[in-house]
Amino acid sequence: MGVGKSINRVDAIEKVTGTAKYVEDMLPSNALIAKVLHSTIANGIVKSINIEEALKMPGVETILTCFDVPDVLYATSGHPLSLDPNHPDVKDKLILSKRVRYYGDDIAAVVADNALNAQKALEKIVVEYEEYEPLLTPQAAINNKISLHEQCPSNELSRMDFEIKDGEVDFYKGKFSDDPYIAGREDLKGTYFSVPPVHACHIENNSCFAYMEGKKMIVVTCNQVPHTLRRNVAEAIEMPIGDVKIIKPYLGGGFGNKQDTMYEPVAAFLSKKLGGRCVAILLTREETFVNTRTRHGMDIYASVEVDENGKIKRKGLKLNSNGGSYGTHRHSITAYAVTNFFELYPSGEIQIGESSTAYTNLPSAGALRGYGIPQIDFAMESQMDDIAMEKGWDPIDFRKKNIMKLGFRDPFDKFYVKSNGLEECIDKGRELIDWDKKRKEYDQFNKTSKDIKKGVGMAIFCYKTGVYPIQLENAACRMVLNEDGSIQVQIGATELGQGSDTVFAQMASEILTIPESKIHVISTQDTDITPYDSGAYASRQSYVTGGAVKKTALLMKEKIIGKAAAIAKISIDDLTIENENIIIGKTKEIICSIGNVATLINFINDSSQTEHITAETTYTCLSNCFAFGASFVDLEVDVPIGKIKISKIISLNDSGKILNPQLARGQVHGGVAMAVGYAIGEQLLFDSKTGKPLNNNLLDYKIPTSMDIPEMESHFVETYEPTGPYGNKALGEPPLIPQAPAIRNAVLHATGVSIYKLPMSPQNLVHEFIKAGLIEDGRE
């Protein structure tokens, strides 16, 4: 029982047997189906929409166009409400758009009795556009005469520029520039890195349905932040928050892409228009790729200056981020990335950071596992290896001279590092991969092997747990004691495959001594009855919601012991709980079981004693901490065809106390596999002239299959994080972060060629190998 042990997932049986209910499993048989008409231009205005022929099609109930929706801008971000005027979410979305901002924007919706009839009617709609030039990059968009949003004439959504002096941040206002120099300083010229937009590719497409019961609007959806979603939907459809209910069933993955408000306002507005009838919007895979969220593509100029002893003296960073068509997370992901550059390797002298997020005519970028850190870690860790190679230093030794240490004070969020196992992760990985031996052996091998080259590489990272103090971090938990001594646990934190409900059961068991099999964590959320929680993001759940579970379990324990003491007429100070029994602490004498207390108190014929025992608390997290880790990669490169074959990846993580080793290993394996795709294959492609998506399907968009995943090892360096409820800190996102640069650095060791953009696909690698002279260019 309790934390630190590998127990089976509490939702395992339902998911394995197929009895777990997802959104489409809950869809009523009489539900109407809505299909959304997407724009066929990337930038422009809808001049007119002719729906006459579409209305004549069989089964059509209604057609909604961009000319029929409320002129109410709402935010789509899945953030809790910020009372700080410096951190508001962007309200820039209408239910349907007359102003087209990307190829695929939502301009109309058809509701019919089934999907086929809705699609046939959709094809009868005729649209007239006024078309503008697509602005697909920040360079093209910022300060262009064509503004994508009225409230942002420059198309620069937001920026953050600063200089760090003596550990304090001094903010200033810079300007967008293609100049690689940071803050105009020629001594801080950066190396250019580029990373593309990619997609989460969760197994369940985004979907929702809405209907009304009386005055209540009910939305069933696969969303990670149901309480925040309720606020956004209420604003969009102009209903009081209390009249909107969000139900979240089981989720088939999300990785951040289900954090934002997507099509729930459309479905709810259509239901309202049709008198409360049930309307469903079930996205296709092609729509999920384009009409939800992507990872931000970024252009990064990174500058690092070192002294002759290998100590970093000065650093500079310029980061231009492609935010896409709508603001969603505003500048928060870009800011998260730029600040991380100055945290993992703090320097003693000047540190300058400049960052910009632009509106462009691409699909909206939002949260995706790692929240901007995979992008910056690729640039940062690639540059560290480049410097080490140039200077003739061992990359590991160079890093260890400069990494963040215990006691480091984060200059941005003003907290001190109280646990840090990074150096141990590095040392352990060095030993496990046999670094020193293989670096020498592969150097010798590569001297004589022309086509096949071998390399070992590594990369490290740091990642914050939660988002305090930028945003509110709180969570609530409710527990109800049943007559048999079992417990119902309700939390607003969402289980989306990561195993949080299982860990919450372990946390409650740790305090109450009730086995996890008798702790029933309710895995679905209903905003009418589920306690508030900000939701699933930022690897915060075991850290923040875990604090609420622990606090509530302690209150429940106190209530149980109090009732037992009153019944037995014994001082409460003499009693404790052990193995589901209330005992006298000194003598270990059993007074009664927890179930006895629950039954007696529920049904005792004494109004002064009768009580159905419940406990509910709210936990507000006023702390933050860093998770750390390293990745080591052993691979070979077939140079003529640009093919990478990864032999082994060793992932090492300091996530504080590991609450469930089996689940933790699953998180690592999933994160590493996802990162392999980011490193060597994945990239959303768009026509450079029209902005039309070119590979928004699982045939042309290449994610790794089981045949592509290399041998993996996961290892944990357990530290104790005093701000975590059980000494724990982030694990969900961190394993993905260092894989791309570790693979890149292994390719550097193997070939001597520095790669500056992702993905490291055969086409891109061959191009770089030709430039480096490793492959003869046979073209005339």
Report Rg: 28 Å
| Helicity range | 25-40%
Count of extended strands = 32
- Structural class by helix and strand composition: alpha+beta
- What is the rounded distance between the termini? 71 Å
Largest sheet: 8 strands, mixed
Query: What's the number of structural domains?
Result: 3
What is the fourth-level CATH superfamily of the largest domain?
Aldehyde oxidase/xanthine dehydrogenase, molybdopterin binding domain
Beta-strand percentage range:
25-35%
CATH C-level category of the largest domain = Alpha Beta
Overall outline: globular
GO molecular function: iron ion binding; xanthine dehydrogenase activity
Domain Aldehyde oxidase/xanthine dehydrogenase a/b hammerhead: 17-133
InterPro entries: Ald_Oxase/Xan_DH_a/b, Ald_Oxase/Xan_DH_a/b_sf, Ald_Oxase/xanthine_DH-like, AldOxase/xan_DH_MoCoBD1, AldOxase/xan_DH_MoCoBD2, AldOxase/xan_DH_Mopterin-bd_sf, XdhA_XDHase
Protein name: Xanthine dehydrogenase molybdenum-binding subunit
Describe the fold and architecture.
The chain is α+β, with helices and mostly antiparallel strands and 780 residues long. The chain has 3 domains: 31-132 and 206-282, Aldehyde oxidase/xanthine dehydrogenase, a/b hammerhead (Aldehyde Oxidoreductase, domain 3), CATH 3.90.1170; 372-465 and 625-772, Aldehyde oxidase/xanthine dehydrogenase, molybdopterin binding domain (Aldehyde Oxidoreductase, domain 4, 2-Layer Sandwich), CATH 3.30.365.10; 474-620, Aldehyde Oxidoreductase, domain 4. It has an 8-stranded mixed beta sheet, sandwiched between helices. Helix 8 (332-340) runs parallel beside helix 9 (373-391) and helix 13 (500-512) packs parallel to helix 14. It is globular. The relative contact order is 0.13. The mean pLDDT is 96. It comes from Anaerocolumna aminovalerica. Keywords: Molybdenum, Oxidoreductase. GO terms for molecular function: iron ion binding; xanthine dehydrogenase activity.
